């Protein structure tokens, strides 16, 4: 342990250079000049005169001393932190662009800036620049700035609209946009209007394409403005005033880019040799900052070599604050007294950095780099330096988004440390914290804080636990005991200030406590394979990893739906929420429970992925739905239609295969392959990836039904969701009847079977046998019998 604070004695070594005033006094006198008085006389003269010069000299010497101490501190800290740097770039990447660069992308966003003149020499004015952050196989950090991709959306083209009308429409829309965006520096708001032939995803329309206008605007933020103008109405030459339904105008720009470039979350991207340029004006702290055109990117499917993971750097940290008695720490009053840090490479079992920063001295801790500081300001600046030197890709901890990170930002503001919030990968870009409310059907309403650290993913283990597991308590102690069989160090929060105000040994006890609170989130991350699972979920659903951490289920389904629709030349309308008192449907069946204490074993029969199976078996989709008035108009034969128990009509696959069933088939087939590969795999890393993949596929499949039933969602369709639940009710009731009719004493069985409960996709059966083995045997027989009575997609299991 060593101290790197500002206090302490001056280091040994060569004497400091004399101050300018001292140097002036030490110069030899020129020839003929009056000689100075003898030393005694000089001393007496100084006693008689004002001591101003001596005071100034001492001040300068004191400033020199302070500067040297500060330099010592900075050099010592820099030396220690430099050990944690990433590996150096190879010479050919430092100097040129002669080799291709492949990296696994971890986050994608965009900024408004100027297009690269070499790639787009005719561009002018502000443009959207996509930024992709990632890591190479060798562990080098990458910031790739992608140019040339522009935001767009569609509207249906009114009948009779001529090329001249389209030109006039563009001019009128441009004028309206200028009026709505008077303070903008954009020179041309509407970049282009193009006539295309496409189909809407809504309803079955055999071989019937429509004319659509693709409207390209200057900036992503202008899509909403343009949409509003068109929805309110605009004059089109001789056609008069028209209002429009817009298509795909609510798609996030980064997601639109990923879909059009066939990029999925967490996949590998390659920049071919000669197709990129090293950034001339460096904007980030990444080792490689590159510029390219979006059309030159190569996106690799996550298969084979490209299914592997890059060595992401993961920083787990925890802070301790000196709270007042009886008060929860408040950043306006209570200082940060310790910060513990663990740095781990993805896939490694142990951290390669264990560090704790303490306010005041701290006794050594075996295997830990202890840094002690004299002031809280020094701690905060040292932590900022650690972030910059270690350059983590992912920052984790427990409740870091709602407490630790906002607390550090607030303390820096109180202490007026303006340079502290520069924690991201973009130079001069500060961490932003804002209050948020997250609401979804699965997770409910939650208040939190959105912390933006550009280029780094924040993974809060508390939020992940609340999202993914139903537990009685979400404290770090309880969660660690549940999953790890471990607990925090035994330090009650009420004695933290006393330990801090004690001596080096008491502060050591507090440091061990702080380190354990930083280590447990890393252990949970590894134990639950969170990085594998979330990367695989991002790959399967096609969204950035950050979307999985901050958004609900619907964005994942929308991403898959958009990708499939694009392949079929379909466009998706913006549909405003259908929520009203009339827009309800009957939910799943719950059979009344036969309450009691059962000594004999109960077998549970459930349908494998019931709702996905129903949607696949009956081809339920937006594009297969037939409105009642179209059944006669299209002259569709009854044998080519499904009529659901709720009365809706869908065409069978031989007329048109639904997109949602296709998505579900691919998800469940991929899950089946992943589970089969998992059984064969021996390598622990490969097993972790495959297990993460099969879990991601299961969750993704189950969320498709919910997407159609979300009345305030992106694309609600109650005809689909009500059909699914009506089939589910029918199947559960039919299963109960089949079991109780077949497994009887009259049928040759020892006892009459009794269904004691049923809910959504399963029934619980008492066969009357005494052993679990016999109950399982009869359960398997029942599952096989029931599955044979349903359409192939519905498979009962025990």
From TrEMBL:
<dbReference type="GO" id="GO:0000166">
    <property type="term" value="F:nucleotide binding"/>
</dbReference>
<dbReference type="InterPro" id="IPR043502">
    <property type="entry name" value="DNA/RNA_pol_sf"/>
</dbReference>
<comment type="similarity">
    <text>Belongs to the DNA polymerase type-B family.</text>
</comment>
<dbReference type="GO" id="GO:0045004">
    <property type="term" value="P:DNA replication proofreading"/>
</dbReference>
<keyword id="KW-0808">Transferase</keyword>
<protein>
    <recommendedName>
        <fullName>DNA polymerase</fullName>
        <ecNumber>2.7.7.7</ecNumber>
    </recommendedName>
</protein>
<keyword id="KW-0235">DNA replication</keyword>
<keyword id="KW-0269">Exonuclease</keyword>
<feature type="region of interest" description="Disordered">
    <location>
        <begin position="1"/>
        <end position="46"/>
    </location>
</feature>
<feature type="compositionally biased region" description="Pro residues">
    <location>
        <begin position="28"/>
        <end position="40"/>
    </location>
</feature>
<dbReference type="GO" id="GO:0008296">
    <property type="term" value="F:3'-5'-DNA exonuclease activity"/>
</dbReference>
<dbReference type="InterPro" id="IPR036397">
    <property type="entry name" value="RNaseH_sf"/>
</dbReference>
<keyword id="KW-0479">Metal-binding</keyword>
<dbReference type="InterPro" id="IPR006133">
    <property type="entry name" value="DNA-dir_DNA_pol_B_exonuc"/>
</dbReference>
<dbReference type="GO" id="GO:0043625">
    <property type="term" value="C:delta DNA polymerase complex"/>
</dbReference>
<keyword id="KW-0378">Hydrolase</keyword>
<dbReference type="InterPro" id="IPR056435">
    <property type="entry name" value="DPOD/Z_N"/>
</dbReference>
<keyword id="KW-0539">Nucleus</keyword>
<dbReference type="Pfam" id="PF00136">
    <property type="entry name" value="DNA_pol_B"/>
</dbReference>
<keyword id="KW-0548">Nucleotidyltransferase</keyword>
<dbReference type="Pfam" id="PF24055">
    <property type="entry name" value="POL3_N"/>
</dbReference>
<dbReference type="InterPro" id="IPR017964">
    <property type="entry name" value="DNA-dir_DNA_pol_B_CS"/>
</dbReference>
<dbReference type="GO" id="GO:0003887">
    <property type="term" value="F:DNA-directed DNA polymerase activity"/>
</dbReference>
<dbReference type="GO" id="GO:0006287">
    <property type="term" value="P:base-excision repair, gap-filling"/>
</dbReference>
<dbReference type="InterPro" id="IPR006172">
    <property type="entry name" value="DNA-dir_DNA_pol_B"/>
</dbReference>
<dbReference type="InterPro" id="IPR050240">
    <property type="entry name" value="DNA_pol_type-B"/>
</dbReference>
<dbReference type="InterPro" id="IPR023211">
    <property type="entry name" value="DNA_pol_palm_dom_sf"/>
</dbReference>
<dbReference type="GO" id="GO:0003677">
    <property type="term" value="F:DNA binding"/>
</dbReference>
<dbReference type="Pfam" id="PF03104">
    <property type="entry name" value="DNA_pol_B_exo1"/>
</dbReference>
<dbReference type="GO" id="GO:0006297">
    <property type="term" value="P:nucleotide-excision repair, DNA gap filling"/>
</dbReference>
<keyword id="KW-0238">DNA-binding</keyword>
<dbReference type="InterPro" id="IPR006134">
    <property type="entry name" value="DNA-dir_DNA_pol_B_multi_dom"/>
</dbReference>
<feature type="domain" description="DNA polymerase delta/zeta catalytic subunit N-terminal">
    <location>
        <begin position="148"/>
        <end position="223"/>
    </location>
</feature>
<keyword id="KW-0540">Nuclease</keyword>
<dbReference type="InterPro" id="IPR012337">
    <property type="entry name" value="RNaseH-like_sf"/>
</dbReference>
<feature type="domain" description="DNA-directed DNA polymerase family B exonuclease">
    <location>
        <begin position="245"/>
        <end position="479"/>
    </location>
</feature>
<feature type="domain" description="DNA-directed DNA polymerase family B multifunctional">
    <location>
        <begin position="543"/>
        <end position="790"/>
    </location>
</feature>
<keyword id="KW-0239">DNA-directed DNA polymerase</keyword>
<dbReference type="GO" id="GO:0046872">
    <property type="term" value="F:metal ion binding"/>
</dbReference>
């Amino acid at each position: 342990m060593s101290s790197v604070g500002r206090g302490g004695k001056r280091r040994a070594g060569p004497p400091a250079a004399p101050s300018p005033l001292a140097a002036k006094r030490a110069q030899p006198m020129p020839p003929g000049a009056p000689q100075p008085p003898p030393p005694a006389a000089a001393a007496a003269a100084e006693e008689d005169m004002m001591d101003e010069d001596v005071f100034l000299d001492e001040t300068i010497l004191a400033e020199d001393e302070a500067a040297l101490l500060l330099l010592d501190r900075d050099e010592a800290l820099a030396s220690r932190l430099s050990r944690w740097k990433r590996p150096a770039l190879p010479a050919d990447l430092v100097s040129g662009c002669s080799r291709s660069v492949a990296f696994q992308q971890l986050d994608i966003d965009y900024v408004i800036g100027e297009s690269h003149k070499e790639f787009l020499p005719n561009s002018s004015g502000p443009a959207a620049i996509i930024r992709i952050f990632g890591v190479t196989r060798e562990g080098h950090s990458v910031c790739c700035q992608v140019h040339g991709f522009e935001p767009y959306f569609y509207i249906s083209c009114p009948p009779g609209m001529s090329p001249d009308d389209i030109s006039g429409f563009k001019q009128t829309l441009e004028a309206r946009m200028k009026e709505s965006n008077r303070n903008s520096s954009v020179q041309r708001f509407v970049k282009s209007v193009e006539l295309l032939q496409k189909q809407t995803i809504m309803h079955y329309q055999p071989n019937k394409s429509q004319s659509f206008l693709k409207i390209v605007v200057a900036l992503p933020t202008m899509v909403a403005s343009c949409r509003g103008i068109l929805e309110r109405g605009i004059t089109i030459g001789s056609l008069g005033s028209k209002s429009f339904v817009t298509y795909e105008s609510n798609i996030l720009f980064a997601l639109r880019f990923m879909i059009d470039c066939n990029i999925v979350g967490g996949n590998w991207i390659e920049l071919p040799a000669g197709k990129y340029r090293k950034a001339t004006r460096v904007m980030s702290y990444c080792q490689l900052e590159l510029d390219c055109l979006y059309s030159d990117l190569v996106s690799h499917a996550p298969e084979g070599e490209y299914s592997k993971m890059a060595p992401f750097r993961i920083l787990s940290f925890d802070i301790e604050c000196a709270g007042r008695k009886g008060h929860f720490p408040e950043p306006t009053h209570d200082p940060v007294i310790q910060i513990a840090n663990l740095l781990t490479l993805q896939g490694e079992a142990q951290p390669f950095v264990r560090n704790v920063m303490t306010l005041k001295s701290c006794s050594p801790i075996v295997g830990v780099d202890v840094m002690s500081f004299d002031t809280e300001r020094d701690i905060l600046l040292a932590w900022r330096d650690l972030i910059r030197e270690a350059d983590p890709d992912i920052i984790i901890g427990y409740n870091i988004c709602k407490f630790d990170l906002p607390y550090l930002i607030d303390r820096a503001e109180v202490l007026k440390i303006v340079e502290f919030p520069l924690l991201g990968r973009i130079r001069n870009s500060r961490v932003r914290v804002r209050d948020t409310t997250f609401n979804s059907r699965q997770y409910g309403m939650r208040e939190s804080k959105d912390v933006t650290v550009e280029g780094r993913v924040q993974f809060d283990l508390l939020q992940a636990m609340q999202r993914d597991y139903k537990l009685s308590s979400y404290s770090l102690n309880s969660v660690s005991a549940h999953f790890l069989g471990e607990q925090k160090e035994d330090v009650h929060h009420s004695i933290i200030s006393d330990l801090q105000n004690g001596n080096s040994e008491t502060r050591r006890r507090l440091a061990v406590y702080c380190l354990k609170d930083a280590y447990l989130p890393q252990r949970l991350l590894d134990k639950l394979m969170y990085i594998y699972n979330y990367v695989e979920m991002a790959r399967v659903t096609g969204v950035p990893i950050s979307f999985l951490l901050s958004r609900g289920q619907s964005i994942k389904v929308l991403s898959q739906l958009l990708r499939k629709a694009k392949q079929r030349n379909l466009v998706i309308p913006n549909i405003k929420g259908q929520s009203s008192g009339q827009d309800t449907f009957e939910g799943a069946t719950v059979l009344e429970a036969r309450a009691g204490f059962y000594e004999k074993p109960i077998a549970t029969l459930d349908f494998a992925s019931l709702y996905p199976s129903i949607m696949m078996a009956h081809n339920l989709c937006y594009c297969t739905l037939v409105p009642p008035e179209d059944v006669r108009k299209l002259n569709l034969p009854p044998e080519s239609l499904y009529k659901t128990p709720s009365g809706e009509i869908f065409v069978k696959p031989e007329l048109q295969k639904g997109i949602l069933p296709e998505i579900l088939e691919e998800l469940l087939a991929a899950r089946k392959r992943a589970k089969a590969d998992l059984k064969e795999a021996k390598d622990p890393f490969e097993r972790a990836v495959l297990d993460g993949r099969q879990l991601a596929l299961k969750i993704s499949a189950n969320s498709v039904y919910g997407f159609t039933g979300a009345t305030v969602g992106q694309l609600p369709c109650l005809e689909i969701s009500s059909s699914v639940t009506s089939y589910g009710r029918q199947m559960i009731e039919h299963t109960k009847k089949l079991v109780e009719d077949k497994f009887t004493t009259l049928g040759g069985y020892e006892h009459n079977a009794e269904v004691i409960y049923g809910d959504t996709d399963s029934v619980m059966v008492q066969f009357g046998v005494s052993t679990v083995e016999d109950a399982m045997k009869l359960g398997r027989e029942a599952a096989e019998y029931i599955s044979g009575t349903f359409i192939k997609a519905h498979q009962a299991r025990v």
